[in-house]
Amino acid sequence: MLDRAVFRSVLPCLAGFLLALTLAVPALALPEPMTDDELLAKSDLVALIEVLSVTSVGALPDPGTRQALQFYYAKAKVLEVKKGDVKPGTEITIEFREVPEDIVGRWEVSYYAGEELWTYLRKRGENYRATYWNARGKQVRPASSNKLPSQPGQTISAE
């Protein structure tokens, strides 16, 4: 059995260690955001877009949580281009997915029907994905709804 003197000397150190660990875990949740210059350099397309619709294309279980996560395609019209070879007026598809409920932070950029925003995108086959977790730029017009489709095949369109 531990001696009281040893216990009293170890307890403050243990409490300090646990406090430091508790404070450090949220700090590890998200990596540092990219600067605007880094986002610009790593993106294939930087554009002002209007999100026309968002469709759930299916759900797969997350390997870590086993939670079924929705995968989405956002159809968007390019309004203005800062970088890239897409012409204004072109419709593009942006892929994104749902994030497990117990994950700390916003690891994925979501797009909502009706919103207009600047975004940083990377080419992925015929489609695009957000360059990084902070790839949402300035919102010009809010979404008509901040809801995403809940069932595969369901689409939410801009009003």
Structural commentary:
The protein is an alpha+beta fold. The protein has 2 domains: 1-29; 36-157, OB fold (Dihydrolipoamide Acetyltransferase, E2P) (Beta Barrel), CATH 2.40.50. Helices cover 19% and strands 39% of the residues. The protein is built from 2 helices and 7 strands; from the N terminus they run H-H-E-E-E-E-E-E-E. Strands 1-2-3-5-4 form a 5-stranded mixed beta barrel. The N and C termini lie far apart (70 Å).
Tally of DSSP helical segments: 2
| Cα shape | globular
* Low-confidence region ranges: 18-28
Main structural class: alpha+beta
Topology, number of strands: 7
How would you state the average pLDDT, rounded? 84
Strand percentage, roughly?
Answer: 35-45%
Please estimate the helix content. 10-25%
Q: Which sheet architecture does the biggest sheet show?
A: 5 strands, mixed, barrel
Total domain count: 2
Distance between the termini: 70 Å
Order of helices and strands: HHEEEEEEE
What is the C-level CATH assignment of the largest domain? Mainly Beta
Provide the spatial order of strands within the biggest beta sheet: 1-2-3-5-4
CATH architecture of the largest domain: Beta Barrel
Q: Over all CA atoms, what is the radius of gyration?
A: 21 Å
The CATH topology of the largest domain: OB fold (Dihydrolipoamide Acetyltransferase, E2P)
